[in-house]
Amino acid sequence: MSNKKVLFATTNPAKVKKYKEALEEKGIELITMKDIGIKLDIEENGKNAIENAYIKAKAYYEKTGITTIGMDNCLYIEELPEEKQPGTHVRRVNGKELTDEEMINYYTSLVKENREKLTAKWVYGMVICNETGKKEYSWSKDHFYFIDKPCEKRNEGYPLDSISIVPEFNKYLVELTEEDKKEYKKKDKIDNVVEFIVNNV
Questions:
Q1: Mean pLDDT over residues 72-89, rounded?
Q2: How far apart are CA 163 and CA 54, in angstroms?
């Protein structure tokens, strides 16, 4: 029996990698925009992660007819006022799309402006669009801290891992060992996300 193909509407290879293996075990093959040679110019103007995820999933599903997953995440920083919250624009600042290194520079400067560390939280949204309509799922990850001294190690596509300290390990996110990651992944709710995808594609 061949795997069911599902399109993941993201250009971030790290996001695909996170779910690909677990989904393959369940008979679902994640394909990307690169695999099908299509990249739409989509205005992600939703107010939150779910709205942006839906905009992406709907556009690609309508274009390809392939069951499509859209995903987005919002970043909230406890110490910042509403107008300074990154929200859905984690990588886009003042209308500019930042590179990984520019993101590290921008967020460490925010830490320096405010205090020695900032308390941050990710809120995620995922939407699946197919012939039955749309299904949505949202979850969040516990608080962690941004500090102003970046780790030298980099996780391509996830630059903020180099300035994030995970309180329970007191380590940079980018420096977690395989053992730590297993423990930390439980917080990522990967199993719940995979279950949501399996049940709705």
A1: 90
A2: 29
